[in-house]
Design goal:
The protein is mainly alpha-helical and 121 residues long. Helix content is 72%, strand content 7%. The protein has helices at 3-20, 26-33, 37-49, 64-86, 91-104, 107-117, and strands spanning 53-56, 59-62. It has a two-stranded antiparallel sheet with strand order 1-2. Helix 1 (3-20) crosses helix 4 and helix 4 crosses helix 5.
Length: 121
């Protein structure tokens, strides 16, 4: 997995968890991504150093930059999954495949797909 894709996955996970919980903690990310605690701890330190998150008292929050990336990935993930399900792909596979596609798709291509399918889903 490329570094950029890893960053995107963590930020999207933090965003999704924040939709369900008031406070996002490292253990929530461990459970959501099914990664080890040390792996998540190291990643969170890098995300904080790079300015994507803040972590205080074990509460993780997205910075403006982190939230922008998370929202972009989340929108792509949801939209592509809905298209795939509409085409007959089962939900689990649609979400797994959309996760693979969302990272490598250019902004231009996603915008075109979104525009072409806005009345489809």
């Amino acid at each position: 997995m490329k570094k950029e894709e890893t960053i995107q996955n963590y930020l999207e996970a933090i965003y999704i968890i924040s939709l369900k919980k008031d406070k996002v903690r490292a253990i929530d990310i461990v459970n959501y991504l099914n990664y080890s605690r040390p792996t998540v701890s190291i990643a969170l330190k890098h995300l904080e150093i790079d300015g994507y998150i803040t972590a205080k008292d074990n509460i993780i929050k997205l910075s403006d930059t982190g939230k922008e990336i998370a929202l972009t990935m989340y929108e792509r993930h949801e939209h592509i999954a809905k298209i795939l399900m509409k085409l007959g792909v089962d939900e689990k596979t649609a979400y797994e495949d959309s996760c693979l596609i969302e990272h490598d798709l250019s902004a231009e291509s996603f915008a075109a797909i979104k525009k072409a399918t806005e009345n489809y889903i």
